[in-house]
Amino acid sequence: MTDALRDEGVATSSAAAKLSAAGLSLSDELVVPRRRIAAWAFWDWGSSAFNAITTTFVFTVYLTSKGFGNPDQSTALLGLAGIIGGVLVFLIAPVTGQRSDGTGRRKLWLGINTAVVVITIACAFFVRGEPAYLALGLVLVIVGTLFYELASVNYNAMLSQVSSSRTVGRVSGFGWSMGYFGGIVLLLILYFGFIHPDVGLFGVTNKDGLSVRVSMVVAALWMAGFSIPVLLSVPEPPITVKKQERGSIIAFVVRVARSYARVAADIAGLWKVSRRTVWFLIASAVFRDGLTGVFTYGGVLAAVAFRFSADDVIIFAIAANVVAGASTVVIGRLDDVFGPKPIMVGALTGTVIAGLCVFAFHSGGATIFWIFGLLMCVFVGPAQSASRSFLARVIPAGHEGEVFGLYQTTGKAATVLAPALFTLFVTLFHGSIYGIIGIVILLAVGLGLLLPIKGKPELPQR
To answer: What is the pTM of this model?
Structure first.
């Protein structure tokens, strides 16, 4: 078990100290039972049913198989679905926190949004391997993406309820790692239980995509089951909004309008205080979406461009999760030695080079993707981790909550970039392999925006 769970609770000393992380106010007085931390982190474990299974290595790969028509066209349509989902997230996500903050309904909305995601995953069972069912599959991906992001807003906000200012890093990291490990375990269960055998459990075969469709039902049950602990163990936050304010439609509309105006006002105000921080928010939003695209379209590229079988894609997925998790831990330790910017520059440079090699040598077949595809995965986690570390060290004093809130918002705003560029290059050049160029360009632009940001952030005192 992680350090966050070794102690029965998290005891703290000072009376009023607070730390803002990811836009959350964290008290030094909070005592958190380890069972509550575990219950919270199990949502990350369960959500691997959507991240690893639905949008990356199983269902989206299934949608781009020959049963649904021309794989290159299906890949382009999948990218279009990603664009639509990204736009919806950008429009809605900034205001969803207000719907639960202060109303004592954060857990309620987490449960509702999670339930919608579970239903969309389960409904994938009805997507038969025929062209007529492609539209249904894409709609499920769009709806699932939207409600998963909405659920994540409330889930991330709960971090303040399961950690203190002294343990937020450990607890957050624990949840992150649970997502990786949950994906690995679920992939293994589906691989050996349904996808790999000619006749899997309960007599399931791959006829008419049944092995994948049944796997999606199992994935839905997986997410539903592991989402229950957080709903039972983590209490609702206290109510701080008056009942009449919560119940007024006009007041709600006003809060929605203000939320968008606040984003612009926060950026303008921060520009006056620290332009470096604003530039970094922009740069990180760009390259973080590129890093997300590496995993989002990795399975599709493996299947369509490199002719991986469904079995091979899942084996690659397991290896990719192991590599990404391990590299995040190992390379992350260098952050305290060299600082986060060299880590980000090195990781992004490595990802761009590996991505170009995937494209340049793709005629070499599956071996090329195994080598350079996994190499790309090596750099994803360290770049994301160093991004958070860099921001934490350059935030002007007194602006922590504001800046980390903007970090989340700008990240949501950029979610459309990777799907758009991926789809653009697939469509222009009529080949799925060209989609990797769109991802590489996005990463290179993010790197280019990062390089001019001057000033080495101060390393933490030992």
So the answer is: 0.77
